[in-house]
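Allow me, if you will, to draw on your knowledge of protein folds for a short while. The matter concerns a single protein, recorded as an amino acid sequence and a row of backbone structure tokens. Could you please explain, in whatever detail you think fit, how the structure tokens follow from the sequence? I remain grateful for any guidance, and I place the record below:

…
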Amino acid sequence: MDFVSIRIITGNVARLVEFYERATGARATWATEDFAELEIGGATLAIAGTRTVPLFAPGSARPADNRSVILELLVDDVDRVHRNSRDFLADVVTEPTTMPWGNRSLLVRDPDGHLVNFFTPVTPAAVDKFARARRS
């Protein structure tokens, strides 16, 4: 089995794609006006409009309704991301903070309210963990 992507359902595909393009530096590939994908470090973030939901099952997903999932983006310098992104990362939940598990994290909300964690490993154990993951 391969883990392929995370898909976000939104009422405004263009707005959410623009946010993630700016946040990640990746460019979206558009399949239709209701569906785009961003390839980010070997993972895919798919963004789909509400008109795609009935193709799976009517009512099975609702836009801007997540309060349990955090998208996590590994960055080289979370403090630099914070400084350079203040013009569009308007909804900062937590300023850069070093977590007990060794990552320095910046937690924000995207335009639909989903939590996004930009993080940089800073302790030796965390740095080693993600260095091993990148070699795999």
In short: The domain at 66-136 is CATH 3.10.180.10 (2,3-Dihydroxybiphenyl 1,2-Dioxygenase; domain 1). The CA atoms of residues 9 and 62 lie 7 Å apart.
